[in-house]
Amino acid sequence: MKTPCRIWDGFRMHYLNDVQFELDEYVGVWLDDAAVLISRFDSRRNRRRFEPTSPWQLMHAVGQTDRHGTTMYDRDIVECEGRRWVVRLDAERCGYSLFLTYAIGLAPSVFLDRSLARSLTVIGNCLENPDLLLETFCQAA
Questions:
Q1: Residue 92 neighbours by CB under 8 Å, 6+ apart
Q2: Which of 18, 69, 80, 105 would disulfide-bridge 2, Cβ 3.0–4.6 Å?
Q3: What is the per-residue pLDDT across 98-139, written as a single tens digit (0 to 9) for each?
Q4: Domains of the chain listed by start with CATH number
């Protein structure tokens, strides 16, 4: 089964049709002419002795498209009726949810289902367009 994903290398986004292999701590992909191991370790929640030296981050497609047919990925910034949300994995709900851009990881969040996805518009993502998060935060303050 193909798992569409994208990888942020610290400078630009790379879109892939599938990951090559998955281990407990790493995911492997082919990127240009090199095999890349991406750590699944979340340094914000846990500490460990050795950290990866590169900023590679893996984001899977969420299995939904927006109102224009654009595939939605983890960490996308979406807009609906003038409000901006961030798409994030929600372990408590075993799926993806929308979080307010200035309160990622905190309530209120909304579970992302197919009907909600069809009302959203992807306007960017947290890594390539952090300015969209700042704009929203400043408007809320």
A1: none
A2: 18
A3: 988 766 556 667 889 999 999 999 999 998 998 888 776 555
A4: 5-57 (no CATH), 62-140 (2.30.30.290)
